[in-house]
Amino acid sequence: LKMSWFLFYLPLRLLMVAFLCYSIKVPISSSQQSFKTHLFNFYHSLILADGKETTVHLLKDIPKRYYFILEEGRALAPFTITVTPCDVPIEWSILVHKASAICSLPAGDPYTQEVSTSQKAPSMVSTIFNYKGNSVKTYMGMSSHFALYMLEFLSTERDTHISVYLSTYMTPGHLYPELPMDPRIDVIDVGHTTVTLTWKHSPSVLQHRENIQYCLLVNEKHNYKSLCAAETAIRSSGMKLPPTLALSLSPHLLEPQQVMVLSNSELSIINKVSSGDVRQICMGTRNTYTVPNLSPNTQYYFDIFVVNILINASAAYTGTFARTLEEPEPKVTELEEGKVIQVVLDGKTQKFYSLQYQARHKKIQFTFQLCHGQVRVHIAKNGKTVASENISGLRYFSLKGKLLDTYLVQLKSTEESNCSVKVALSFYKPLFPLLPESLKIKSFSKLRTCNSVTIAWLGTEEDSKYCVYKRKIEEDKDWMELKSADRCSGPESRHKSEKVLCKYFYDRNLQRAVTTETIKGLDAGSLYLFDVYLFGPSGISIRYHSKVVKTRKSC
Question: Domain named Fibronectin type-III: which ranges (predicted)?
């Protein structure tokens, strides 16, 4: 046991001699100088960095030691040490070795002197702090003597890693972020998809706003005591993470499983993991925040961290949790036979709009006309899905069943902007007109003149009514906006002066179901927007794709 004690303290004592005696100008021989240099190189990797966080990897049941020495020439040397366990509980302690006893050694061979004094080691070493657990702990000390400090870390559960921050500089920029006297997070409002949080300001934010920011962590599993603990948990789910501040501030370091959202000066990182999303949102120095885009009736855990971006260190508030409100039962609208309704869908809430119908006929047909945006349609019969797809233009669903079958139609916007769609239910004859193979309008460049253009469009085998409208548009006007207007709007929305003509035509042979019209009385070198409306037997119209044509400047 004595030999083990001797072997442990021999290199440590020699290291103290080399560092401390050099610091207080004790004369040493050239051989001692060489020995000091050798020890410095040997132990350089064990010297704890000052003023920044150090990641320490621990193997199970194998202690690891780091050293630091207080700066030369300071009568009173304050320092702080913060240790953050990133996974399992650890044991750690701080030991101090006084310099005065070391440097009073008489001249002679350093090895001999070390052997003679090593037996006094217990009286020269004192433990000033020790802790066991997985909480973040900070030790603040003050020394009036030159001394060598040793930090010893041990993990008895499994391999792990910790974060250690040492600062011997008490300047504001090098201080670890402080928590307020009351570090709790308050939940002040809960909605179906949002939770609003508030917390007391950190003293560090109030004093050094330019280097401090708040970051919020949101997940569905549990609270975390530190950012590195959260990152460790995410890694265990099978993904790699960049360092915390790189995660917060450097989007180019994102992993493939991460999504970055930047809006309103907020940076949100969403980590896609098998157990759910883990969101990290940094919001500057605001101490109130509404978390958006949550799922209804779901419990979430919220952690706030105050981060010093200058030294990449963070302190955790006391985490909280909240359950979002349950989504109310969607309002169901009854569909009526032979009637057309237009539904506007909210893209922000992404809610389903529900329509219901109890069959009075064995064969029914649902018709959907997309007016604006992108819409997904889901149709269920007696609770079983019979159709589900995104629709565009005009879409028919012809279904067979039994009398009194219950049909539920659900509509949802697939975009963040609002969408609209017309819905109709019919039995014998469709309410909407029979459509041709294409709804494109063709113009003939060779037939253009200074005051006329010729257009053509396809018809069907049914005798139907077609009306042509025109609108002159300015050169600098965004005519694409006119083309993307509500596709469900009919001729009733047009000015009477825009109407050109109406005509009926059909052809049993679809190869010949084509008609042309020459529109005259136009201005030379001008842009015109042409629309053709096809009317069905019930009076409902379908608009062909708008066509823009420019007349010739000179003829």
Answer: 177-314, 433-541
Query: What is the identity of the amino acid at 210?
Result: E
Domains of the chain, with CATH numbers? 29-99+124-167 (2.60.120.680), 175-241+277-327 (2.60.40.10), 332-426 (2.60.120.380), 441-550 (2.60.40.10)
Is the full-model pTM beyond 0.70? no
Q: Indicate the burial class of 439 (C-beta count within 10 angstroms; 0-12, 13-18, 19 or more).
A: middle
Quick one: pLDDT band at residue 109, thresholds 50, 70, 90? Answer: very low
Helix boundaries (H) for 240-360: 244-249
What single DSSP character describes residue 377? E
Which pLDDT belongs to residue 142? 82
**DSSP per-residue string spanning 224-292:** -SSHHHHHHHHHHTT-----HHHHHH-GGG--TTEEEEEETTEEEEEEEETTEEEEEEE-TT-SEEEE-
Q: Are 194 and 292 contacting, i.e. CB atoms less than 8 angstroms apart?
A: yes
Q: How does DSSP assign 398-413, residue by residue?
A: EEE--TT-EEEEEEEE
Residue 429 is predicted with a pLDDT of 74
Give the distance, in angstroms, between the CA of residue 440 and the centroid of all CA atoms in the same chain: 41
pLDDT category at 500 given cuts 50, 70, 90 is very high
% of residues, the chain, pLDDT over 90? 45
Query: What mean pLDDT is predicted for residues 97-114?
Result: 47
Q: How far, rounded to the nearest angstrom, does the alpha carbon of residue 37 sit from its chain's CA centroid?
A: 50
